[in-house]
Design brief:
This is SPOR domain-containing protein. It comes from Nonomuraea ferruginea. The protein is about 40% helix and about 20% strand. By secondary structure, the protein is of the alpha+beta class. The protein has one domain. It is elongated, with a radius of gyration of 14 Å. It starts with 5 loop residues before the first strand and ends with a helix.
Length: about 60
């Protein structure tokens, strides 16, 4: 098992433990495997919120 470091690999589109692909190809670290699995969804939600905030500033 790992020491709590989980990553989402953008190259392979899967969750990886701390030992895996180079960090340049990954999102994280996350505390749990489940949090890492939701990385793309979380990023999409944040991007949408930021885009909406930018539109409000116009």
């Amino acid at each position: 098992m790992t020491d709590g470091q989980w990553w989402f690999c953008l190259k392979h589109m899967r969750v990886e433990p701390d030992v895996g692909c180079p960090n340049k190809d990954r999102m994280g670290p996350y505390a749990t495997e489940q949090e890492a699995a939701g990385a793309l969804q979380r990023a999409a939600e944040r991007n949408k919120a930021w885009d909406e905030a930018d539109q409000d500033d116009d």
